[in-house]
Amino acid sequence: MKKETLLAIIFGVFMGLIVAAILIFILRPSGEGTVQQADSLLTPKGEAANIMPLEISEPSDRSIRTTESIEISGKVKKDSLIVIESPITEEIIVNSEESFSVDFPLALGENLITIRAYVDKAQTIPQIKTLRVYYLEE
Amino acid sequence: MKIKYFLLSLMTLAFVIGGTVIGQESTGELEEIQEFKEKLASKVAELQQDEEKALAGFASDINETSLKITTHNGEVYDVELDDLLTKYFLISGNSLDELSSEDISDDDYLIITGPVDGKIISANNIYTDIRFVSGSGIVSQVNQGNSLLTVITLENNTLEIEVETSTERQILDIESLEFDTVNFSTIKTGDVVHFIYQEANEENANDRYSASKILVIPQEYFSK
What we know:
Chain A is an alpha+beta fold. In chain A, about 30% of the residues lie in helices and about 35% in strands. Chain B has a nine-stranded mixed beta sheet with strand order 5-4-9-6-1-2-3-8-7, with no helix packed on it. A five-stranded mixed barrel of chain B has the order 10-11-12-16-15.
């Protein structure tokens, strides 16, 4: 076999390997990207903003605390009137961002905390979350 | 000579691509391990948080070793009592008074702490407290004579809310968005009212409740 022919075969095999590696490992679609695409198809951004429900991330229901106050944080449509009440106190805020956070005092024992968000001035029906938080000195 | 350089370059290129591919796989594995670690840490934190929860409800079926409580949503839990381990307290304002097991009676509102296993809780501490309930709705009638508000709730129930002299009364100032105290005579039909009252473990046949606190949002806020 001629030297040039041997080189051409080796060159061809290497090029084939390179192309295969590019196709298999670099250009394959990642699972993460596919899921994200599916999400964006299911929830159009405009509608998601309108139906955003009141979410409270902290504190969790029935949690025990050993401090005299807690931070209540959550998310709701921005510019909502948020009224947070317990038997001993109340706080009111209008959230300029979707997320909000309020420092809230606790009484010893069970604290029934009701969070109402009026998201629309034309609606007298608020979104409501009720939590029971226990401030207990042990 | 040229052929040797060409072969050398080709081999270098093959090693570089091979290395990149292997490197990507290693990075992917590391990310998976990191993700697994984060999930594990989150689960541990969640479990720890679960351990720091309490249960509360009205007491019944009390005996020396156990009692039952019925929570606000009607769930019944068996509470195991231990002579040595379980401690009893009365919440009185901002202080705790120690009690004995004999001081606990049916219909007391109890807060229980301790490990929970399904519907069984082994009580470490038991606190007697007051149970409050909150609600809201639109004022449909104002009875000035006996300081009574008829309220239609979000669930479309009709309740009567007694506003006593001891009831804390507040109204939203729709300009400053702050609360002011309010006279009963200022409240009118169409206003939204939030109320909190104490609840005892007994049937309330006439749906009339004595409010500990009311908070009024004037109807003008919604038509502004």
